[in-house]
Amino acid sequence: MPQIRLTAGDPLVARLAHESNPVKAVIELIWNSFDADADQVAVELDRNDAGGIEGVTIIDDGHGIPAEAIEATFREVGESWKRGATQTHGKGRPLHGKMGEGRLRALALGERFDWNTTAVCTDGVTRWVLVSGTVDSRSDWWYSEPTETHAATGTTFRATGRQGLDRLESAATVQQLVATFAPYLIAQPSIELTYDGTKLDPLEHRSRDKDVPITWTFEGTSHSALLTIIEWDSGSERSLHLCNSAGVSLLEGQKPPAADFPYTAYVRWDGFDDDAHSWVIADMDPDASAIGGLRQTVMRELRDYIDSREAEDRRGLVQVWIDNGTFPYSGAPENQEQQLERSAFELVATKMRRFIPTQKPAQKLTLGLLKSQFQANPGDLAELLQHWAGLNDTDRDDLDRLLRTTGFSGVIRASSNVTKRIAFLAALEQMIFDPDIAPEVGETAHLHRIVEKELWLFGEQFNMMLSERGLTAVLEQHRRLLGENVIVGDVVRRLDGRTGRMDLVLSGTAREPGRHRHLVVELKAPDVNGGLTELAQIKSYARTVTHDPRFSSTTTIWDFVLIVREMDPEVIVEVNQARREPGLAFESDDAGHSVRVWVRRWSDIIAEAREKLDYIQSHLKYDPSVADAREYLNLHHAEFLPDALRGTIVDVERPDESP
Length: 659
Prior knowledge:
By secondary structure, this protein is α+β, with helices and mostly antiparallel strands. It folds into four domains: 167 residues, Heat Shock Protein 90 (2-Layer Sandwich), CATH 3.30.565; 101 residues, no CATH class; 82 residues, no CATH class; 178 residues, no CATH class. Strands 1, 2, 3, 4, 5, 6, 7, 8, 9 and 10 form a ten-stranded mixed β-sheet that branches. 37% of the residues are buried.
């Protein structure tokens, strides 16, 4: 096979090829097809048996590469027949490539690559040629002897044998391709570009567009260009393309403003044909060149456009919140001060739109929290908004007078958690006190399984240690947490010789440094009152810890809690004695042990948890409905629900929460 020696060394070829960017490679090869007057261009992603992409095939019906032009086409870098031309040979379309670098992009797509090209030669005969190359020898290309054929003209490019091409099938890549070729494809409706089996039609993804005439003066000479802005109906595409007057993208500039606004801006100007790369440095000295003045004007027009569109969207979004009943302001502002506050809040809230939940209860909660935070510490949000929401210079300057920074992310997370917790308390109340539901709620099958996923009821400091495990397992885990030998030996038994199983054993760090705290929770179903039998059971666990020296630890506090719907009179007397904390039934503070036994009503547990969330309820007016409670249970605990909770929940009167 004849060989072509590229007049550039391997390092230069590797740099020009941008081998780490396969998306740019595909874009350049598509432009090559368009420059060859192709009407049909298809990009196929070649997958292996595991579904991974290991190659790319690009097929076009263009005029191909004539056999006599093969050597010149693949030999020279920085020169091309296109350099002195403005249109394609056959159909007079605007040209993209001029530097002869496009074929080098193939190195980013495979270890080996082939061009099967068929073209009409200067003598009028149609011939086929195969051109091949490998990354092992970047500067060398091989081509076959031209073969006469009756096949249609066109080129099929194929690259194979490369890993790490999976990004080519991402939604972001498709968005980038649509954005890059949009003006060209819109202006050339006869061209059809297919990517991985899907036709890329910018008109299907365009939500709106606008042309903005640009005029500026440099050194006394007036210049004009056209800024085209296309907004996309979805995705995250945000790019700026420098194009010639025909809309052919020559270079992608810096990211334009508005991070949450999917759009592409196209600056059309014939002056980019020879100097598009100057755009990159024009911002350093905008008065030094015509491109500098253009860049300055374009960025100003873009900011003005985005400001007007965001104001429009902001009004629409606020109206949605008002219609939903989730907006934390009601009525019209009564004075200028209220108007200023509300306007600033609307700007802040809509800038944070992607962090505002869509479900109404959580949405109302989040907006209410934001309002409270905004009114109490307005300086706590500015830098966060700038970092998260992509504030432009104008927004930042306006908000800097009102806002500064702390962690609004914590507020958002807290509002979401609080919403769920308030709904859970309402649901738990239904399970314990609803006369139709409570009889069906079992201790082990339902209540235990649900509560062990809601351990915050007992304090944020606790984590699950064991669930439904015997005393021996509890001792092993206790010694393990202390960093001691976990070989227990004999089975741990209660003082009467019986074994026992504990419902929930939680562990956390006590307030005193270097101290541990274990919380043993014994749950009882709603139809089981706390009597002397139930109290004796949990006391027996506590006395086992007290009397078994293997549990001895001067750094551990043990709390045993029996939780019931109601207490028998004898137990009420037991847990309400003088000089004891209410609910305390047993206490031992001997050397090496600190053990207490408590009896609590479910109503006490719910009331205390609700009190912790009182700020949210009183300030944000969030009170979950029965439907909210049912929705929470079915979303988070569906597998543990009795049949009664899978249907409609009815309102019940809340129990007396007094001691």
